[in-house]
Design goal:
Order of helices and strands: HEEEEEHHHEEEEEEEEEEEEEE
Distance between the termini: 60 Å
CATH topology of the domain at 46-54 and 196-277: Elongation Factor Tu (Ef-tu), domain 3
CATH superfamily of the domain at 46-54 and 196-277: Efflux pump adaptor protein, beta barrel domain
Helix content: 10-25%
Shape: elongated
Number of strands: 19
Radius of gyration: 40 Å
Structural class: alpha+beta
CATH architecture of the domain at 46-54 and 196-277: Beta Barrel
Length: about 350
Amino acid sequence: MKDKIFIIAIAALALTGCRNQDQNLKADIEIPVSVENLRLKSIEEFINTTGTAFPKGEILMKSKITASYFLEKNPETGRMWQLGDKIKAGALIARLEDKEYVNSIKLETNQLNLELTETELKKEESLFEKGGVTQKELKTAGINYENAKTTVESAKLQLEKTKVISPIDGVIVDLPYYTQSTQVETGSTIAKIMDYQTMYMDVQLPEKYISIIKPGQFVKLTNYTIPDDTIIGNITQLSPAINADTRTFKGTISINNPKYLLRPGMFVKADIVTSRKDSVIVIPKTIILSRQRGKTVFTYDRGVVDEKIIETGLENAANVEVMKGLEKNERIVTSGFETLSNKSKVKIIK
């Protein structure tokens, strides 16, 4: 019996020794982690919304007379105007030719009559100063001159109807096809032009933000077709009234689009920047652990990590400002922290 007890005791001691050896091995294991040096950065707090972008201006050019249609050339390319061409105000898009219409205006005849009435008016003015004509005769000459001038101006306006000219800078977004010299009727669409270097977007904002969102605040806008570019805009108008059905209020965003990255009708994601801080410590939200004593992160120093309690400030979907608990140039653990405890030994893999 004593021998059996002795054997059991030896076995127990051996098992305990193995466990202690395993624990020592575990204590010496270095957990792989990634770290990065803390640098001062900027952080913005923003409110997300979405909407549709519309052009600042658009105009539909239509034929004002029935005439033969002739599409003009784009002076920048040397070819006929096409969809997507940029166009300047005053550029000629198409000519509408109708000789009978032009002849009926009698511009040359009216211009000659204007010259005659102008000469007659000057003659009457000279005679009036010498007492050669009455004031009534002078006024009659003046009226004749003004009527002739109005007739010429009216004739010129009538002739302008034979030219389709862009009144704005923009881009041709619609250009119905007509064979050269074909007859188009009055009211036929010749071209549609949009100016979308500046755009606008109407948005519906939740009631809880009515005291936070202000006119003038910057807005960052993106679309899935331009994931690497951010367009800048700003809040221009805000309604003071809440929609009782949706519990939202209306806002208008002006969008600066100089490179034409956004297109009219695009669905846009907008981040309204409500707060911003520069030169502060910013860390990813994903590395923060929630403990009973507060929010914590791990910092690295000479092969060992320290768990530190932090206080946070501004935050957005990805990052958070650290107001207390971390210092510039400390090395913070960014991956592999899930299994760490205070004073764990680690090795850097990145």
